[in-house]
Design a protein that fits this description.
This protein is of the alpha/beta class. It is built from ten helices and eight strands. It is globular, with a radius of gyration of 18 Å. This is Cobyrinic acid ac-diamide synthase.
Length: 252
């Protein structure tokens, strides 16, 4: 079975950036094949990977609610459409949830995505799940057993406290991660004592292990603005050594 790594955290902290950097690391270390799943309805992981998405799981689910072609079972049709939705690249595939098909449809769309992942899981060594803000969507996806829950925060007191609260939701939601880690993204080169103290307080009270601090990188932001793939980052990109040290230490 593949090792499942899921991202969590409040909006705007860089979960998608961390997912792209983690995929960069796995490919460099030849820990492949990988299934990257963009489970956020506002999908943009493909943009950081330089890929075009033609078909989403939300669209597949909508098609399956209509009439199927003759002489094909629902399972056969689902398998065909899911493989059409997979964007294949070197060493990994990308699967995008996209928008659900109407108000109130997020639960069923997430469950359909979970069913799709179950169908594909045996083909991969790692599955990376980039999620929307919060934790409830992991429960809706029936993603109960996770090898690593990576809770991402920005370097603010509110972000770090929110990360602690998010980590505390795993038990009430019935989610059982093998490991829960806090990763502080866009950290200053010399963190202030107050930030370090807040991180220590949160990790001790929430059961989160500190994965590490990813430094703020102006060149990484410029790379994104230019629409270039994070998989093509140059070796001298300052954030890469820190990312590789963190991922090499915490990955299952």
């Amino acid at each position: 079975m593949p090792k499942i790594i899921a991202m969590a955290g409040k909006g705007g902290v860089g979960k998608t950036t961390v997912t792209a950097l983690l995929l960069n690391y796995l490919l460099a270390e030849k820990k492949t094949p990988v299934l990257a799943v963009d489970a956020d309805a506002n999908a943009n992981l493909n943009e950081l990977l330089g890929l075009e998405v033609g078909l989403t799981i939300g669209q597949v689910r909508k098609e399956m609610k209509g009439d199927l072609p003759p002489h094909i079972t629902r399972d056969q049709y689902m398998e065909m459409k899911v493989h059409q939705a997979l964007v294949e690249a070197g060493g990994f595939d990308l699967l995008t949830m996209g928008q659900p098909d109407g108000p109130g449809c997020y639960c069923s769309a997430n469950q359909f995505l979970a069913m799709t992942m179950d169908h594909l899981a045996g083909n991969y060594e790692y599955i990376l799940v980039d999620n929307e803000a919060g934790m409830e969507h992991l429960s809706r996806m029936n993603l109960r057993v996770i090898d690593l829950l990576l809770v991402v925060s920005d370097p603010s007191a509110r972000g770090i406290m929110t990360a602690g609260r998010i980590a505390g939701l795993t038990e009430p939601l019935g989610i059982a991660p093998g490991k829960k880690c806090l990763l502080v993204n866009r950290a200053p080169a010399a963190p202030e004592a107050a930030l370090t103290a807040k991180i220590d307080e949160t990790t001790q009270s929430s059961g989160l292990e500190l994965a590490g601090l990813l430094p703020q990188s102006e060149s990484l932001a410029a790379w994104e603005l230019a629409g270039r793939s994070y998989l093509d980052l140059p070796a001298d990109e300052p954030v890469l050594p820190a990312a590789r040290e963190i991922f090499g230490r915490i990955l299952p």
